[in-house]
Design a protein that fits this description.
297 residues; alpha/beta; TIM Barrel; 8-stranded parallel sheet; 48% helix
Length: 297
């Protein structure tokens, strides 16, 4: 498992009856890779994992592994209400052919470091797959501090990467200082990618890439190569869209954008509802302006 590049946190497509649309998921993944993405992550927050049954999660992983046929890694998001179910899903990801795991804290229950560590450790130990820790204190109210992440890395040889979604670029600097090159650091919020790379991150678990892979990969490459002018110009255009990844209705927003660019549908599972009224109008206005001024890559 090579933790590098732009890896989409894939949305989960649904049919009109809200069953999982496996045909589109396969097509979408192939399209993302064709445009330069270096792998895919399924079953994350953007993938509406909390609304998926265990069997649905397993079938999505199998669909992606078949569709990508070993060309790039498929990473399974491991998130559940219980530690036992998280362990079961990690083991199932091995059987499905996944290359890595992105391990989340448990849904709903947010507690102290002792309990969070006791949740993560059995998941890391459940398989030999390469693991990424997903730190998102904004959404999950559980904050893995750099010192705690370093402790986990010391204890678990298969913990290789961190998706840092605290929205604090100083965390990248702190992790680099404490861990050196022991962990690969990924930016996990879209509107921090340029700053994150400049601080030492070398990967991006991205959201708007679901609709704009060409621009996402170009922005990442400019930032990694130190092409400051090109990165800043593209970032300025992209930021109003990238900020859609950092608000509570990010799933609805990104799926709406996918629909409007012809690569997906805005259907979401309850309790989410599609955007309406002023929220929808504002999102469409932002997208319309972006498409009218879309840069040539």
């Amino acid at each position: 498992m090579k933790w590098i590049g732009v890896i989409p946190a894939m949305t989960t497509a649904f049919n009109p009856d809200y069953s999982v649309d496996h045909a589109f998921i396969a097509k979408h993944a192939q399209w993302l890779i064709k445009h330069g993405c270096s792998g895919v992550v399924a079953l994350g927050s953007l993938g509406e994992s909390a609304t998926l049954r265990f069997d649905e999660k397993l079938q999505i992983l199998k669909t992606l592994v078949r569709a990508l046929d070993g060309k790039v890694p498929v990473v399974a998001g491991i998130a559940s209400l219980s530690t036992m179910e998280a362990v079961d899903l990690a083991k199932a990801a091995v059987d499905a052919g996944c290359s890595g795991l992105m391990v989340l804290p448990p849904y709903v229950y947010s507690s102290d470091w002792r309990e969070m560590k006791s949740h993560l450790q059995p998941v890391f130990r459940a398989t030999k797959l390469s693991c990424m820790l997903y730190n998102n204190p904004v959404s999950y109210k559980t904050d893995f501090l750099p010192e705690q992440i370093a402790e986990l890395a010391k204890a678990h040889a298969n913990l290789h990467a961190v998706k840092e979604s605290s929205a604090d670029v100083r965390r990248v600097t702190a992790l680099k200082s404490i861990c050196g090159n022991r962990l690969t650091l990924f930016v996990g919020v879209d509107d921090l990618i340029v700053e994150g790379v400049r601080a030492g991150a070398t990967g991006w678990i991205a959201g708007l890439v679901n609709a704009f892979p060409r621009e996402s990969v170009a922005l990442y490459n400019y930032a990694m190569r130190g092409e400051t002018k090109k990165a800043d110009e593209l970032y300025k255009w992209f930021l109003p869209l990238l900020r859609m990844d950092t608000v509570p209705k990010f799933v609805q927003l990104i799926k709406l954008v996918q629909q409007k660019v012809g690569m997906g549908h805005e259907r979401v599972r309850a309790p989410r509802c599609v955007l309406t009224g002023a929220e929808r109008a504002a999102a469409l206005k932002t997208l319309k302006f972006a498409l009218a001024n879309r840069p040539k890559i």
